[in-house]
Write a structure and sequence with these properties.
The chain contains 6 helices and 57 strands. By secondary structure, the chain is mainly beta.
């Protein structure tokens, strides 16, 4: 059957009744000034609000004309003056599965996509003479021109190639911009057309000149203006009727670039993962801890924990003696040379044993009548009784306990016999640790006893603890918080100040298959001092190996409430992916992070505050922004942000730790930021920022410069040690009396820093090999977030 007559009849009906109630692809929501509509059959008209548009229609605006279209899937298309635009294809139903193809011949088009792009982004394509734009989500400004018409800011030296230029600026979401490949079918998505393709995130702008590959450029002023002002004339239809005004969009500050043009992304990020932020698979980095770190606990009256590079654990023959504390960097670095070095001098080794766990062995023992030094071999203080020790391969990855879910039971697998100040040797009975990874807590139950010796009658003690916080694979508790001790005579640490104690430990091994723990108990409840006991010991536990590839999101947030010391003022946090709530434009509305007095994982929520200057790296899902105005909440309690901001930066979702290159160096370019803010309602201007990594020496250099409230600030830090392969930090001055500052932060201010000004940098790497980095800074209480991408990817 010949279907041509039916198609002709349908076209005639459409031409004769353009305003009929038949289905359409969209309609005009706003018209002002000179605007014309040419239908597919050539019929020309002056549109008004409510005029339908369909496939094949062309819209042209004059020097004073602007229009906004609302499409059937609720997409919004806004046309600036001197624009020629065509709808090459657009479904009449948002669920039809057909393509939406928009063509811009010249001028400026601002678009916010709807259901079609949300359901299948490959179905929505924008094109010009020289470029194709794949929609990865939300909003953009597309500009097309010929040589004689182009804005001077985009022509460049020597004029445009082939006479045509396209500029695309991403407002929200992400876009894939490709140069047109000769012979490619119309509407071919960029990722399928064989063209050179760049991926953009919010605030990024791409230029395509002729047949040249696309490249990033600073956002031209006329594009930035279009991002914030598409209705600079009074709303009305072609005749000026105010009733024709359509709905408008309120733009957040993040719709325009944070930085001045000369500071924007000099080395762009290239990729084709698009938005949706797929999990970065770094599971190949899980084979072993590249630093071979070991967790160490010494129990001397009470326990204390440390960590050391494998090569920095001290042995005499096969006997453990001590360690040089790990502070980052290589074993012979200046930082390591100045580190604390606990060392057991002399004594007789007893109870030496080992337990096999994932990635190695737990080793333990005790030295009777030894001396403890904190400066290496020689000297030290003689310790009554025994010095107990236990060490094992550090839990890997370091963040794993923060992101796992479910529960696990760890049972006693070995340990030293508990001893008192007279070296009376007792027995460690039943001991169990139940870990609730979902709650990030653990419970302990333990029983121990000492026999009578001399005039001391010995005794029995039961230890329990519920809901002990677990963070970064480590835990601790004391009788002043979660630990409860009862002795054989019925005394309890809850009611008696003469019965006290504490324990400290960590989950160790690949997959956290073991636990090491040290403990100490002081029992002076007897009226006879000869019956007092000061008991110490260590214990090792084994349990089921956990999933090391559990996904996580590393992050940093600022301290708007000023609850931390001035030289800190930032919080580090590791979240489960689901705990970071927000959208694909970088607008984060909730997360888990520390807060003074509430633990390592308080629940932050946006509340009535606003998300400002949000941005996202579409390659990895790195997001940044700040909350300001109104009131956020922390564990349901109000956090006033009316005159201050909470800055945040979170890495994308990743399974497996970062594995940085072993040698060489790399420069990182700033790809996003928030403006610096203080606690008095001032918002400053970021001038510049830099980050460079030396992978051979495992150090980072960083700097930032900004102005705020009539003051100029600079901060810089050199040779910040990279610790646990992912993190780096620096602070000003020397807040630890008698200590050394391994990588001081240097502050500069004009005209004056003020009295006792202090500051800090706190950062992290993300991606399989650290392709991205986030940095939170505080200089004199002025705070902000910086996002970096490694040059060359």
């Amino acid at each position: 059957m010949n279907k041509a007559p039916k198609r002709i009849a349908a076209a005639i009906a459409l031409a004769l009744a353009p305003l009929a109630a038949a289905a359409a692809s969209g309609e005009f929501a706003f018209v002002t000034g000179e605007v014309s509509l040419v239908k597919a059959n050539g019929q020309r008209s002056t549109p008004a609000r409510g005029t339908p548009v369909d496939t094949g229609d062309r819209v042209t605006t004059g020097a004073n004309g602007m229009a906004q279209l609302t499409m059937v899937d609720q997409a919004r298309l806004s046309l600036r003056p001197n624009t020629s635009f065509a709808i090459e294809a657009y479904p009449e139903r948002p669920d039809s599965g057909e393509n939406a193809i928009l063509s811009l011949a010249r001028g400026t088009l601002r678009a916010f996509t709807g259901l079609i792009a949300a359901n299948n982004r490959d179905k929505f394509v924008m094109k010009t003479r020289v470029a194709t734009v794949g929609i990865r989500g939300s909003g953009n400004i597309l500009y097309a021109c010929e040589a004689k018409e182009c804005d001077e800011s985009v022509i460049g030296a020597g004029g445009p190639v082939d006479g045509a230029i396209t500029v695309n600026h991403t407002i929200e979401g992400s876009h894939a911009i490709a140069n047109v490949v000769p012979g490619a079918p119309a509407g071919t998505p960029p990722q399928q057309g064989g063209a050179a393709t760049l991926i953009t995130g919010p605030g990024q702008t791409v230029l395509v000149r002729g047949a040249e590959p696309p490249r990033y450029i600073p956002t031209p002023a006329f594009i930035a203006d279009a991002a914030t002002n598409m209705t600079n004339a009074k709303a009305g239809d072609a005749s000026g009727a105010a009733s024709n005004a359509g709905p408008t969009r309120n733009f957040a500050p993040s719709d325009t670039p944070v930085l001045p043009a000369n500071q924007q992304n000099p080395a762009p990020l290239v990729g084709n993962n698009g938005l949706g932020f797929p999990t970065i698979d770094a599971s190949a980095n899980l084979s072993a801890d590249p630093l071979a770190l070991r967790d160490v606990i010494l129990s001397v009256g009470s326990p204390f924990a440390g960590q050391a590079i494998g090569a920095d654990v001290d042995f005499t023959g096969l006997e453990f003696r001590g360690y040089r504390a790990y502070l980052g960097g290589s074993a012979d670095s200046a930082v390591a040379q100045g580190a604390i070095r606990p060392y057991i001098n002399g004594g007789t080794l007893r109870d030496n044993g080992s337990i096999a766990v994932g990635g190695g062995n737990i080793s333990y023992g005790r030295y009777e009548n030894g001396a403890l030094s904190f400066t290496g071999p020689g000297g030290g203080v003689a310790i009554p009784g025994s010095i107990h020790f236990i060490h094992g391969p550090s839990g890997f990855p370091v963040y794993l306990s923060d992101v796992l879910t479910g529960t696990a039971t760890y049972t006693l697998a070995g340990g030293t016999s508990p001893t008192n100040q007279a070296n009376t040797v007792g027995a460690l009975g039943a001991a169990t640790i139940n870990v609730n990874f979902s709650n990030r807590t653990l419970d302990l139950a333990m029983a121990l006893s000492l026999p009578a010796a001399g005039s001391n009658p010995g005794g029995r003690w039961n230890v329990s603890a519920d809901g002990v916080s677990l963070a970064l694979n480590a835990f601790s508790a004391s009788s002043s918080d979660r630990m409860v001790i009862t002795n054989g005579t019925g005394d309890s640490s809850r009611t008696s100040e003469r019965l006290t104690g504490g324990f400290q430990g960590s989950l160790v091994g690949t997959g956290l298959a073991g636990i090491i723990m040290g403990y100490g108990i002081s029992d002076t409840t007897s009226s006879n001092s000869n019956n007092w006991n000061f008991i110490t010991g260590v214990a090792g536990f084994s349990g089921p190996a956990q999933n090391g590839a559990a996904a996580y999101r590393e992050g940093r947030i600022s301290d708007p409430a000023g609850t931390l010391a001035d030289f800190v003022r930032t919080y580090a946090t590791t979240n489960r992916p689901g705990e970071v709530a927000g959208d694909t434009t970088g607008r984060v509305s909730a997360f888990s992070a520390p807060f003074a007095g509430t633990g390592a994982h308080a629940a932050y929520a946006l509340g009535s505050a606003q998300v400002l200057q949000a941005g996202a790296d579409p390659e990895t899902g790195l997001v940044w922004g700040r909350w300001s105005g109104g009131s956020a909440t922390v564990n349901g309690q109000a956090l006033d942000l009316n005159n201050r901001s909470l800055h945040y930066i979170f890495a994308g979702t990743q399974s497996g730790p970062v594995a940085l290159p072993l040698t060489g160096s790399a420069a990182y370019d700033m790809i996003g930021s928030t403006s610096p803010t203080d606690g008095n309602g001032h918002v400053g201007t970021l001038g510049s920022a830099s980050l460079n990594a030396n992978f051979t020496s495992r150090t980072v250099d960083a700097s930032v410069a900004f102005s705020i409230n009539g003051q100029s600030w600079t901060g810089s830090a050199s040779n910040m040690p990279i610790y646990r392969e992912q993190y780096f930090s620096a602070y000003s001055g020397n807040p630890i009396p008698g200590g050394t500052n391994p990588a001081p932060l240097t502050l500069g201010c004009t005209p004056s820093c003020g009295q006792n000004a202090a500051g800090s940098f706190d950062g992290f790497f993300s991606g399989r090999t650290g392709q991205r980095a986030g940095l939170m800074y505080n200089l004199g209480g002025n705070q902000g977030a910086l996002a970096f991408g490694r040059r060359g990817g």
